[in-house]
Every structure is written in structure tokens, then in C-alpha cells.
From TrEMBL:
Coiled-coil segments on the chain, per record: 65-92
Any Pfam family: HTH_Tnp_1
Lineage of the species this protein comes from: Bacteria, Pseudomonadati, Pseudomonadota, Alphaproteobacteria, Acetobacterales
UniProt keyword list: Coiled coil
Organism: Acidocella aminolytica 101 = DSM 11237
Full protein name: Transposase IS3/IS911
Length: 107
């Protein structure tokens, strides 16, 4: 299992919800995050990252939402594949052009 998938989406959602629900019980959001992280068994920084992303998804914080990030990754992958295809076509075109020149000179 990869590091990114160590915790289930349900665990992540529950932990973030706990931070939001118990935020008023602690002196700061970080204190809440540390408390909840200890209970679910992840690092405080990991939980902080989940909370920050949830805040972006809810429009409470600037940045890309989860769906925007997924779309960006898909578009970047598509651009990479298209560049590879263009490079293959460019090389094939040069190869066949050279073969055509060689054929003309052999006549």
C-alpha cells in the first residue's frame, strides 16, 4: 500500500470533521489537530494537510480544490502523452522523408 493511501477516505473525513467540531475546545487549531492526530494514529502534519485541503474544498481557504487538482493532473498527463506522440510522429516523419530521398537517389 502506498504512503498516500495509508488511511481510508472515511478515516480522513472523520478526522477532519473531529478537528472542525472540537476546534473551540482548544487554544488553537494546531492544538486541536495534535489532539485528534494522537487519537487516530497519524502525524499532526498529515492531519493538518487534510484539514487545509478540506478548507480549500469548502472555499474557506485559497487554492485548488480536490476536483481541480485531479483535473489538473489529468490534463498534465494528457499533455505529456500528446508530446510523446508528437515526438514519435516527428521521428517517423524524418525517417520516411530520409527513406524517400535515399530511394530517389538510387534510381
Amino acid at each position: 500500500m502506498s504512503k498516500a493511501a495509508k488511511y481510508s477516505p472515511e478515516t480522513r473525513e472523520r478526522a477532519v470533521r473531529m478537528v472542525f467540531e472540537h476546534q473551540n475546545d482548544h487554544a488553537s487549531q494546531w492544538a486541536t489537530i495534535e489532539s485528534v492526530a494522537a487519537k487516530i494514529g497519524c502525524t499532526a502534519q498529515t492531519l493538518c494537510n487534510w484539514v487545509r485541503q478540506a478548507e480549500r474544498d469548502q472555499g474557506l481557504r485559497e487554492g485548488l480544490t480536490t476536483s481541480e487538482r485531479e483535473k489538473m493532473k489529468a490534463l498534465e498527463r494528457e499533455v505529456r502523452e500528446l508530446r510523446q506522440a508528437n515526438e514519435i510522429l516527428r521521428k517517423a516523419s524524418a525517417y520516411f522523408a530520409q527513406a524517400e530521398l535515399d530511394r530517389r537517389f538510387k534510381r
